[in-house]
UniProtKB/TrEMBL annotation:
Keywords (A to Z) from UniProt: DNA-binding, Repressor, Transcription, Transcription regulation
GO MF, one annotated term: sequence-specific DNA binding
Keyword Transmembrane helix: no
Name of protein: HTH-type transcriptional regulator RipA
Highest taxon above the source species: Bacteria
Positions of the HTH araC/xylS-type domain: 153-250
CDD domains in UniProt: cupin_NimR-like_N (cd06124)
Source organism of the structure: Nocardia tenerifensis
Length: 256
C-alpha cells in the first residue's frame, strides 16, 4: 500500500539524506530555502500547479524557495537534499527544473550530503561550485504541463488513467463535450504543445517507471502505447537523452 506523508520525511540532519519507499507521496508543501534533490536510486516526481517534473536516478530536481509542490517516489528512492539559501537561488531558474547530473555534480552532491567534516567555509564554497555547474547545464526536464480549462483537464485525465489508449483527439472531444478543433487549440494555448507531443511526454514519464520496475524495452513500449519498440526508443531518447536500454542498464548498476 503506497504511503502518504502530510509532510516531508525526516532526513538525517547530519547527512541531509532520506529514503522513500515505492509509491510514497509527500503532500503539497513549500520551503523557505531552495532545494536541490538528487535521487541516487529510484525515480522522484515533483508536482506543482504547473505540471509534473520527473527525475530518474541520473537527474537532479531544483525547487525554488516558496514554490508549493509535492513529491512521489517510484521504486526504493534515496534522496540527497541540498538546501540553497535565497541569496544564491537567483542564479537558478524561478520554477522547478530537472538537470542532468555530471560527474562533478554527483561527487559534490554526495560529499555535501554525507557526514564528512569540512574546514570552515569549505561547505559553502563547494555548494557554490554546484550552483556554478548548474548554470552551464541545459534544462533536461521530462516535464508534463497540466491544463486549467475544465474540458482539457477532463480529456487529459483520461490519458493519465490509460496512457496507452489509442483514442484520437476527436474521440476524447466527444467524451468531454468539446470539438477536436477546440481541444487542439487549447493544447497549444494552455500547454504550448500539440496533443501528440503532450501524450508522448506522458507516455515517457510512465515508461521511466516501467523500466525501473524491470520491464523489458519491448514490454514497456507496448504498455505505454507505442506500436513498435523503434518508435518508443526514438521518442524516449529524444526526451531523456539516452536510450531506454542504457537508462535501464544504469539503474541496474546503481542498484548493485
Amino acid at each position: 500500500m503506497p504511503e502518504t506523508c502530510p509532510t516531508p520525511p525526516e532526513l538525517d540532519v547530519a547527512m541531509k539524506r532520506g529514503r522513500m519507499g515505492h509509491g510514497t507521496h509527500i503532500a503539497m508543501h513549500r520551503h523557505r530555502e531552495g532545494q536541490l534533490l538528487y535521487p541516487s536510486a529510484g525515480v522522484l516526481a515533483t508536482t506543482t500547479e504547473l505540471g509534473t517534473w520527473v527525475a530518474p536516478a541520473d537527474r537532479l530536481t531544483w525547487t525554488p524557495p516558496g514554490f508549493e509542490h509535492s513529491h512521489r517516489a517510484y521504486g526504493d528512492t534515496e534522496i540527497h537534499v541540498l538546501e540553497v539559501p535565497r541569496a544564491l537561488s537567483g542564479d537558478l531558474p524561478d520554477e522547478p527544473t530537472v538537470f542532468a547530473v555530471t560527474p562533478l555534480l554527483r561527487e559534490a552532491l554526495v560529499a555535501l550530503t554525507t557526514a564528512r567534516p569540512f574546514q570552515p567555509g569549505a561547505r559553502d564554497r563547494l555548494r557554490r561550485v554546484v550552483i556554478d555547474e548548474l548554470t552551464h547545464i541545459p534544462d533536461h526536464s521530462v516535464y508534463l504541463p497540466e491544463p486549467r480549462d475544465d474540458r482539457l483537464r477532463a480529456a487529459t485525465a483520461q490519458l493519465h488513467v490509460d496512457p496507452a489508449t489509442s483514442a484520437t483527439l476527436a474521440e476524447l472531444g466527444r467524451e468531454v463535450g468539446a470539438s477536436e478543433r477546440t481541444l487542439s487549440r487549447l493544447f497549444h494555448a494552455e500547454l504550448g504543445m500539440s496533443f501528440h507531443q503532450w501524450r508522448t511526454l506522458l507516455r515517457v514519464q510512465h515508461a521511466l517507471v516501467h523500466l525501473l520496475d524491470g520491464r523489458s524495452v519491448t514490454s514497456t513500449a507496448l504498455a505505454c502505447g507505442w506500436s513498435n519498440p523503434t518508435s518508443f526508443i526514438e521518442a524516449f531518447t529524444a526526451l531523456v537523452g539516452q536510450t531506454p536500454g542504457r537508462y535501464q542498464s544504469e539503474l541496474r548498476q546503481r542498484a548493485r
